[in-house]
């Protein structure tokens, strides 16, 4: 293999894939990136067996070939290289030489044959969606994924794909986020899959907010996304996702409109005086106002009053503030609704302009 490429192009390819290369895996090859010189392209691939990614960049290929090298090492070398054209070569597929200006690096690698095979492209069960729409499905749900290893099936985002719409749901048992989007073009693909948190985070990292289309293919055990010069593969989580519709209240007793940014800022300020032992904020609703309070023995107490449109009986709701802040941080709508039933019932938060997005939070019971 012998190839030359601009530093910016090399970094583009490496940084698209190097996050996936496992640094703690039991197999040394999983910490490597596969580098392939084919025709007028350099292809970079990485996988941890659960997710995989390939990125292609333009390059001047004098001799085709392939080698795998430690992902962190090659990424760091290229990142620190001067802003010049970089030459990469390998004679036997076990050692890579990198030359940039007066700098020369020789990295020990492993043969291409040891690297797990990634699919070249998606299968026949496919459809397309704008990047912006996929980004929104992820952004509005992924923060509610469970971080507890014992809740295996809750460690990802459920994608319920129907002919005319796609629904994303995530829950950790204490809160649930659900968003639904109409598919731009009706199709025949209908599936229900759970994507693990790592796959969801990688998809969120590689896609943008544009209207550019992404081809989505659903296989027997994996989903494949193809966009421009990137191919991404994520394997499904096995397990039964809970019947989420049963968790979402069908009605409410009071709907309170709130300015999202005002509520968000007040929560952040009051939660400064919460602690790991006492991680709760009280929302005391009274006619025309809401009082937010937090108190801890070791830190002190904080309170802030907000004017709200509320005319019911006095009501006190207690929450882990992080659960409310997660929703408010990931929502852009200027006004939201806080729908309540009672002090021990789940509440719903919704954007005023989007009835297809709902966030359900369980209050803390004292």
Would you write up a description of this structure?
With 366 residues, the protein is of the alpha+beta class. It folds into 3 domains: 2-114, DNA Polymerase III, Chain A, domain 2; 126-245, DNA Polymerase III, Chain A, domain 2, CATH 3.10.150; 249-361, Roll (DNA Polymerase III, Chain A, domain 2). It has helices at 7-17, 71-80, 131-139, 197-206, 260-270, 321-330; strands at 2-6, 32-38, 41-47, 51-58, 60-63, 65-70, 85-89, 95-100, 103-108, 126-130, 156-161, 165-171, 175-182, 191-196, 213-218, 222-227, 230-235, 254-259, 281-286, 289-296, 300-307, 315-319, 335-340, 347-351, 357-361. The strands form 4 sheets. An 8-stranded antiparallel β-sheet has the order 6-2-3-4-17-16-15-10. The chain has an 8-stranded antiparallel β-sheet with strand order 14-11-12-13-25-24-23-18. A 5-stranded antiparallel β-sheet has the order 5-1-7-8-9. The radius of gyration is 25 Å and the shape is elongated.
Find the structural class using helix and strand composition.
alpha+beta
Number of strands: 25
Largest sheet: 8 strands, antiparallel
Total helical elements: 6
Helix content: 10-25%
Tell me the number of structural domains: 3
Mean pLDDT: 93
CATH architecture group name of the largest domain = Roll
Principal-axes geometry comes out as elongated
Cα-based radius of gyration, to the nearest Å:
25 Å
């Amino acid at each position: 293999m012998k190839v030359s490429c601009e530093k910016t192009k090399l970094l583009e390819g490496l940084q698209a894939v190097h996050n996936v290369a496992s640094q703690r895996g039991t197999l040394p090859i999983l910490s490597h990136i596969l580098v392939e010189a084919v025709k007028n392209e350099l292809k970079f691939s990485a996988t941890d067996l659960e997710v995989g990614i390939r990125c292609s960049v333009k390059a001047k290929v004098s001799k085709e070939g392939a080698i795998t090298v430690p992902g962190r090492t090659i990424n760091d070398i290229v990142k620190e290289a001067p802003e010049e054209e970089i030459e990469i070569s390998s004679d036997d597929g076990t050692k890579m030489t990198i030359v940039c200006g007066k700098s020369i690096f020789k990295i020990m690698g492993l043969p291409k044959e040891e690297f797990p095979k990634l699919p070249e492209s998606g299968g026949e069960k496919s459809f397309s969606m704008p990047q912006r729409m996929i980004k929104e499905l992820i952004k509005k749900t992924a923060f509610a994924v469970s971080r507890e290893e014992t809740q295996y099936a809750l460690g990802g985002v459920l994608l319920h794909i129907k002919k005319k719409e796609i629904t994303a749901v995530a829950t950790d048992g204490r809160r649930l986020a659900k968003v639904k989007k109409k598919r731009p073009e009706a199709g025949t693909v209908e599936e229900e899959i759970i994507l693990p948190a790592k796959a969801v985070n990688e998809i969120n990292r590689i896609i943008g907010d544009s209207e550019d289309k992404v081809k989505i293919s659903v296989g027997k055990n994996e989903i494949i996304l193809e966009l421009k010069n990137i191919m991404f593969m994520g394997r499904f989580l096995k397990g039964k996702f809970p019947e989420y519709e049963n968790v979402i209240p069908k009605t409410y007793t009071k709907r309170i409109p709130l300015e999202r940014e005002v509520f968000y800022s007040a929560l952040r300020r009051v939660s400064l005086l919460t602690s790991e032992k006492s991680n709760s904020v009280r929302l005391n609703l009274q006619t025309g106002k809401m009082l937010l309070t937090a108190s801890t023995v070791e830190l002190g107490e904080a309170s802030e009053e907000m004017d709200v449109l509320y005319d019911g009986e006095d009501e006190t709701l207690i929450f882990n503030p992080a659960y409310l802040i997660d929703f408010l941080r990931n929502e852009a709508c200027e006004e939201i609704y806080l729908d309540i039933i009672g002090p021990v019932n789940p509440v719903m938060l919704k954007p005023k302009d989007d009835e297809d997005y709902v966030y359900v939070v369980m209050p803390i019971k004292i």
